[in-house]
């Protein structure tokens, strides 16, 4: 099947070339980072995790969200997701690829990465994260590739795949729960020290993941004539809506806890993020953008008539995706480190190399995704053609 | 009633996951007993069950402004351990430094005590906690707790993930964002210099203890504001001071149990 990735229209190659430019730029700056050290980023003694880890965290959610499609399809035999499932699984593969890249890029000594396996440390959450992420990557690759291959061979998937699929379904929430545990068990980090962190991560993921899938499905419907079907769009829209509502609710619960209790340390990160703290307001415009995006998405999603309109649904998907990205991909990590343990503010802003390296990782993810989707679409096209000829 | 294969696999899956879960939870909650690495000091070394430090801030302020400004304890530590002098505050490395009361004890703000204490300088360094969160989170055991209570840091095993920095509630750890070597005015060949990409912090002069010497900062402090000793020995000087005077530790509510005490 891989050969389908090697033949394509001019547009396909142009798109890959476009991504290639960002990948090469990112790789160049990463080599600089290897030479100079993480000093070329905007991180500091006080904000010691930032853009890379934030992107990693967000993408773990995107990867985990595949379960919102795989579970209804395999567990409840929800046929509407027939075409969608493989797209969801491949999105997970590409998202985990980006996650792993972001983790390696964030390491001060990447050549020592195998120390995690050489000295296994079960009391470190990072140890479990490495296991669940790599496991999930392999599980999804096996599931999607085998299912697609069976489709290609015009047979139903082999019976041994079923337990693997169920394992992948059970596994999915854990990749995000474990990632949340990285944050939520740390003493002295008020913004993260909350039991609702893991559930909040899950609902945020289960809304932003389907949002990205809606966008991608609309895109390939337009450029490749591959339609997942109106019903699938509708159901995805509902999934996104309910989980997004839960996410907004959870976020407001956190605000309540912090401000009703009145504990200064717990209020401080919210104050820093939304109105600024001691004259520092770096992320205020971003957080309010997220709020405005959230309001727009609510207006569209809460009314079934507007939600069922595909153009508006795609717009809502964009607003959900970007508001979640700002909250998790920016606010979460800087909010956790600001104010610092001395209750002072060390402002963080990503540097240009940092942004370009991240863009390179995202482009790599989209390259993987494009190739996998291209194969899926071609297999589907050939099938349809065969059905037509036989019919 | 026969169990269908599908149901059987489901049960098997759920069972397997819960077993792993229970085992995992078990190891996560044994936090009070972060694995202690046994340590046998060489002959002639200073020995203790749990090393600790008392900082007498009153002595410190009595020694005068000049002494605080050019603190010899800090200089001695940084010279001994090749701690670079990086002017950029965001990338700086520090093992021991002075900050004010509000920053050292942020949870005690808005109290009457602040007015009284804000004029005192406070030495900040790694607390060598009894329950070190940094050790709990390190994925490679690059940072570990020794049986004498010293929280150690292996520069050569550290992968630079900085989880320990996120875990430390005291801001006691520094990361080498850039090559530290050009920022050394004088190199002490007895102690390793660092590469970019590793975390470092105060190590209670474990290397000097092995030679029978007290930590460099304690030795260099002219006003004898720093006192070092065994917290588990009732006869030790630090225990005598702690018995007589009121002491503070940083963020006691977190349960980390610092081994560094402040007496006023």
Keywords:
heterodimer, A: 391 residues, Formate dehydrogenase/DMSO reductase fold, 14 helices, globular, B: 264 residues, alpha+beta, Alpha-Beta Plaits, three-stranded mixed beta sheet, 14% strand
**Helix percentage of chain B:** 25-40%
Report the major sheet of chain B: 4 strands, mixed
Radius of gyration of chain B: 22 Å
Structural class of chain A: mainly alpha
The pLDDT mean of chain B sits at 90
Spans of chain B of at least 5 consecutive residues whose pLDDT stays below 50 are none
Strand-residue proportion of chain A: under 5%
Helix count of chain B? 11
Q: Report the CATH architecture of chain A.
A: Up-down Bundle
Low-confidence stretches of chain A: none
Under CATH, the topology of chain B is which? Alpha-Beta Plaits
What structural class is derived from the secondary structure elements of chain B?
A: alpha+beta
Summed up, the helix count of chain A is: 14
CATH topology annotation of chain A: Formate dehydrogenase/DMSO reductase fold
Number of strands of chain A: 0
CATH architecture of chain B: 2-Layer Sandwich
Greatest interface and its participating residue counts: A-B, 53 and 61 residues
